[in-house]
Structure formats: C-alpha cells, structure tokens
Amino acid sequence: MTTTQTQIPKLDVEGISLKSVSLWQITWRRLFKRKSALVGMVILGILVIIALTAQWLAPYSPYQVLIGLEPVKQRQAPCIHLLGCPADQPQHIAGVDGNVRDQFSRLLYGTRLSLMIGLSTISFAIVIGTILGALAGYFGGWVDTIIMRVMDVLLAFPSLLLAIAIVTVLGPGLINALLAIGIVSIPSYARVVRSSVISVREMDFVSATRALGGNSYEILFKRILPNALTPLIVQGTLGIATAILDAAALSFLGLGAQPPTPEWGSMLGAERNQVFTAPHLVFYPGLAIMLTVLSFNLLGDGLRDALDPRLAHMSG
Amino acid sequence: MMIQYILRRILTAIPVLFGILLVTFALARLIPGDPCRAILGEKATQAVCDRFIAAHGLDKPIYTQFGVYLGEIARGDFGMSFRYGMPVTRLLVERLPTTFELSLSALFLSLIIGIPLGIISAVKHNTWADVGTMIWANTGVSMPVFWLGLMLMYVFSLLLKGTPFWLPPSGRVTAGLLAPAFYEVWKWNVSATGFLRSLLEFFGRMNILNALLTSNWKLLGDAIKHLILPAVALGTIPMALIARMTRSSMLDVLGQDYIRTARAKGLARLVVVLKHAFRNSLLPLVTVIGLSLGSLLGGAVLTETIFGLSGVGRTLYEAITARDYGIVQAFTVVIAVFFVVLNLIVDISYAYLDPRVRLN
Predict the structure, then answer these.
(1) Chain A to chain B Cβ contacts (< 8 Å)
(2) In angstroms, rounded to a whole number, what is the distance separating the alpha carbons of residues A62 and A282?
(3) Is residue A316 over pLDDT 60?
(4) Whether B150 and A252 lie within 8 Å, measured CB to CB
(5) Full-model pTM
(6) Could you give the angle at the alpha carbon of B58 between the alpha carbons of B52 and B62, nearest 5°?
(7) Rounded average pLDDT over A188-204
(8) Whole-angstrom Cα distance, residue B101 to residue B313?
(9) What residues contact residue A283 under an 8 Å CB cut-off, 6+ apart?
(10) How confident is the model at residue A67 (pLDDT cuts 50, 70, 90)?
C-alpha cells in the first residue's frame, strides 16, 4: 500500500507538556485512586506472594502427619508463642487438623490451589465464551440463534446446581469440578462478547477494513474483538471470585478436590461436624476463601469503574 | 402492548424449557453407574435387574424414553423415586415447602435490610455510614454460604447457649411441637389423595404460614427461631448485592435535575428520597433480585445440608450421589422451570416499570 504522508502540524504551546497517555495508564491511575480497589490489589498481591513462596513459608509439609513427631493432639487449638502459648509447646498458628497435620501450612498451600482454580476455570470459560459469542454476534442468523439458545438453557440453571450435576456425570475430583465450573461460566462471556461484537459490527472502521479487502478473520480478531476486551476483563475478574466460591462449595460437598489435597473448601468440609469442638478448623479455611474472593471482587469493581469512560470525570 | 410483550417473552421461554428438559434427561442418563445395582444393592442378580430395567422402561431406545418422559411430565407425573419407593411428586410436595420457606425468608431479610442500607448509604454518600455499609456489602458478597452458616451456628448455638439469644442449630421445629395442618384444624373435608390435597399439604407444610393460619403462637415462635440462622446464611449474599445495587442506582438518580427541582420547590428531604429517587431506582433493583434467585436456589443446597433441613436442595444432592434418576430429573426440572418462570416475572415487571423495554 502506498500512501502519501501528510504532515501533521505540530502543536506548539509553550508551558503545556503534551505527553500521550494510554488507556492503560489512565486505568492504572484511576485504579490506584480508589481505596477499595487498592485494598483488593494489596490482598491479592499478598496472596500471590504466599502462593509463590508457600514451600518456604510453610513450617511443615501440608501432608505431614505429626503423630509421634511432636506432642500434639488431634484437632488441637492454635498455639501461638507470641500470644502466650507456652514456649515448650510446638507452635501451630492455625491449630492442628483432624489428621494431626499443621493447618497453617495447609492453608498456605491452599492459596496456590485457589488462585489456580480461579484463573484456569475463567481462562477456559473466556476462550470458549469468546469464540461462541464472536461467532454468534458476527454471523448472526441461525448460528446466533442456536448458540444463544444453548447459552440460555445453561443460564436457566442455578450455576451451582448445574455444576453439581455436571460433576456427578464426570465423576468427583478437582479437574472435573474445574471443568464443570468452567462450562457453567461460559454463557456470561459469550453474552458479553456477542453484544460488543454486535455493537461495533456495522461501524465505519469495520466497513473500512472490509472495503480494504480484509478477510473475516482479520475483521473479527483485529478490529472487532479488541472492543470486547474491556468488558471481558471486568467480567473475568469478578468471574474468578464466583469460580473460587463455587469450587470451594463443590469441594465442601465432597465433589471437588479430594482429601488429602490442601484445598480450603475440602478442608472445611472434612471438619464441618467438628465446628463445636474445633471451630478453628472451620474458621480459618473459610476466612481464607472469603479474603481471596473479596480481593477479586474489589479489584473487579475497581476495574469496572476505572474502565468506564462515563465515569472519567470522577476521581473518588 | 404489554400483553404482546408478555406473550413474546413466554414464547421465547418455550425453547429454553424444552432445552432444560433435554439437558436434565441427558444428565440423568449420563450419570455413570448402574441404576439397578445402585438401588437394589450390589448383590442384585441379573434376572432381578432385568426385571427392574424393564419395569422402569430403561431397556427402550433412548429417544423413546425421552418421549415417554415428556408425556409423563405433561401429565404432571414425575415417575417413581427408586430410593424412596414413592412417587416423586409426593416427595416434591413434602420437600419443596421447606426450601420455599427458607428462600422466601432469605429474600425477605435481604430486601428489608439491603434496601434501607443502600438508600442510607447513597444519601449519606462518602460518610462513615456509607463506607461502613460498603465494606460490609463487599464482605457479604464474598462470603462462602457454608462457612457463614457454620460460624453462625457456632456463635448462636454454642457460645450464646443459656442466653436469650440462643438459636437452634438444626431442624425446622422442636420435636413434639409440630401441630396439625390448618386444614385439619379447621376440619376441612378433603380426600386423602388428589391435587387439592397435595396443594393443601404443600401450604400446610410451611410451618410459619400454618402457625399463622391456626394462631399457634408457640409453633410460630419456634419455627421462626429455627429459621433465623439458615435464612441469614442464605440471605447474606443477596442482601449485599441488593444494598450495593440500591446504592449505585440511587446515586445515579440523586444526581438528576428533577431531584434538585423537587428539593428546590421545598419538598421534605425524606419525600424526595423515597418518592422521587427510590421509585426511579427500582428498575436495576428488580434485575438484581432476579439474579439473586439463582444464588438463593444454589445456596439452598449448601444451607439445607448444613442446617439439617430436608428441602429440595439437600434431597437433590443426596439423589445425585445415590443415582436416583427420578428425583434428579424431576427436581432439576422443577428448580430450573421455577427459575425460568421467576426470571420471566422479573422481565415482565421490568417492562411494566419501564415502557422503553416493551417497545424495543
């Protein structure tokens, strides 16, 4: 393609610096201004660090049974030296679980699993949902009708129930639970992508690409889909929160991660009948789930506001 | 216009309902394992199993089975539960009221607490009341239902034992308190079977309703006491969602010119907030309530499991693990259809509240 370069007149105003600012820089700035988003990022940052360094942070192996190694009892309450626990007793910050393992170490390793669960299910759902939504929105007609009707049916079930049903068919286990949650999450991404594809499909810049001889692939992936990126990021971040909650619920019911995997939902489920005698075994795993979910929720909400052009004037 | 819109929405719901039937049928058949040996035990002989399979029509081609299934559902017959040895419809009449009562009270709680909190938060924007409410709401939506339930149980059933704040950790009523249903108290003459009887039983099994109808205050107090913890556990997520949505849509509306006008012409602040602002921020709220229904029905499985309530959720979960096709199919269909119908109602009320929706 040969084009004649037209000289763009340079703005030359003294005293005004005209540094170009990208959308992402603006988003970052707005994100940092929001206290709730900042809190979310800090919690998430800590969780990521814990996940990456669990093997050095954890005082014990998450599978290590302490019988015969230390004078500890089954389901012993937390013993923290700083809080007055006798120094001659071994320290277990979050107590000892029903199989006489150090719960704190298991909680740390659980961070790794939880973050992986959230990321993997939602990546899966985003990829499949984007493909389906793009096809439906771009081609329209019967393709659209069939895809979106199937999505409607999936959405017609309460997500946790559908996930339970799918896991039952596939068989209990962490991988199958992840697959089930991934499948259940697909429709919302398909919808998001479809609606943004439809909203830009007929716009001039798309017609221009078509007029210049761009093929469907180029139009769809280079011109149309980038427009769906913003809502996808927001939806995805909030989706991770839901996915982690649902995965924990499945594991709690015994359909997800199986013992002895140090997964928070499964740890909680295994000890739920001991809530009156050993509340620490229920309290800490649940708290960990809540903090993780909270961090993604706060970050997702912050991203939504930061990426919303209508709120550009708002600083709060 | 409105009627046209309603008809159109009902028509689009039909393929979805058909899809639901297809999916539940397929899921129930895909559950691995042999239903005969799951029900009759591992030692069932081949001959016994053949008879079992023939009796339940499981030897016919799969499309015939689906056809039979559709025909039965059209007649309101959900077949037999292998495990309980009784018609699934009976089981539904028995278990649905528990879930109904639980979900409705959870929704009720979330509305009467969520909406005022959201309004206060919007009116007192950026004050400590707002910040506090939002911290609470964000924590609320992030809370695992099962964890909240267990922690509530620990605090109210164990730590507060012996105080007036003690609440029972499980069950629906204290043993021995269960009173006869209202139609028995009123000596209604209803036959022991039939649709009317099932309907009456259905309502009679909702303890709070029954206690109110029969002025049984002891039962009422007891039933409410049993319901508080599960309803709070189940209602927290919707409550937080509702508070957040009320706040953000109120904030949108409060910035509008007509609010300033209303204030300028000297209307009381409370009137402006409730009549001008709140009514106009109802729309998004209706959507959130629709969305919350899903989390209510899904959360019911967890809540019922924790608090030992034999509702639909827990029965379904147990049926899935026991491969009881009849229950799995019927209960999933009922829950999904319920969900679709509720969303239909939400959509229609949306159109009623906002004429732009139905003209589109």
Answers:
(1) 131
(2) 17
(3) no
(4) no
(5) 0.88
(6) 175
(7) 88
(8) 13
(9) B151
(10) confident
